[in-house]
Amino acid sequence: MFTTNLDKQKQSLSVTVTIAENEFLPEFEKRFKEALKTVKVPGFRPGKAPLKELEARVNYQAIHSATVDHFARKYYAQAIEEAQKSAKENNVSVLPLPANVTVEESKENKSDLLISFTVSLAPNLKEVELSKLNVSLEFTPVDAEKLLHEFASRFGSNQLFDGSENADEVTKSGDTALIDFKGFINNEPFEGGEAQEYELKLGSNSFIPGFEDQLIGKKAKEQVDVKVTFPKDYYVEDFRNKEAVFEVKIHSFTRAKEVELNEEFFKNMPMLGVSSKEELQELLVNRENIQQFNATLDTYFKNLIEELVKASNLVLPEVLYKDKFEKLQKNFNDSLKQFGVKKHEYLKLVKTTEEKVEAELKEAAAKEAKNEFAMQYLLGEFGQHEIKDEDVKDVNYKFAFADENVKKNNLYLKNLVVNVLKQANPSLVDKVEKAYSDLLK
Question: What residue stretches are annotated with the PPIase FKBP-type domain (predicted)?
Fold first, then answer.
């Protein structure tokens, strides 16, 4: 009764049931007779109209559609069961989505009806060789002196350089500059490229790449022409890959003045559990090593996911990311309302159209869904059991304030990445194991 057709190219599997004429007609005739009872013919009492008049007023197409729906519902569960069976035999997986139902006449016997139930297949990421993916993993050495300076700055005060005193002092990375700027493309000012008394933290990378770097080493009151190129993925499409010049005036800049890490400071900060600059440095380094370990492995895993998606040419049915797309649309519209901007004003500002914005949001939703699918695959293949309290009860970190959640999270992440690396790049396994052991006493 059922025939199956696997199409790996389209990532679909169809199960077709043939409804023979001798099965279809009785159901059709039953519904036809029921319809006759509801027909009213002007001038005749119910049940007294000639059959010919009644038949002329029956909606044959509606009855035919209802009969087809009957058989589609009747065989739906069996068809899905058959699809699952066929998928298992062919080593593929069916996505948990409703089947697409189509109906056509049989080419071999036009009296028969063919009802096809088509399910979407999950992409087979097992076909991708992880060893061929180019994903690096590198632990950056901790800069102990930098950590000390950052710590001392947080407890210090801000020093203002406005040109009146220390006029020769120049800006450094980490300073916050108060600036006016106006941008030009092809010597023409562009919308949204101008601001006055804007506070910009140098080194924060919050502006176009290269912008902040050109403001380092400058004095208060100095005027600077900053030359940059807009990134290829800049949110204003018309500006992408274009060169621009910004006229910038530095009104002033502030710099965090570090507190002196002396005996008095440590007496006033007993909660740190240290009594000297050396002990503080060790504490900061141990904490940073934990954060860096977690961040490095997390970055590796995210990059691996992206490379896996690219290598597999992953395609997902639109219905799988419909909710994500609608959520992004809502967030986009809510953001405009929050800032009191009308949609047409925004579209004019960024020189785009509603259709382009929708396409970009749909692309972002699809990317998010693909990454989630790839992540679930990797977790299913390489993730181990949940880390429990007893797994870390004897694990002692050099950083005394590491809690149980940190220990469990790092151990799970370490095990996951090591399992992946055994297949993807075995030469990196020892590096990860050593980095983990360096966290421990």
Answer: 174-254
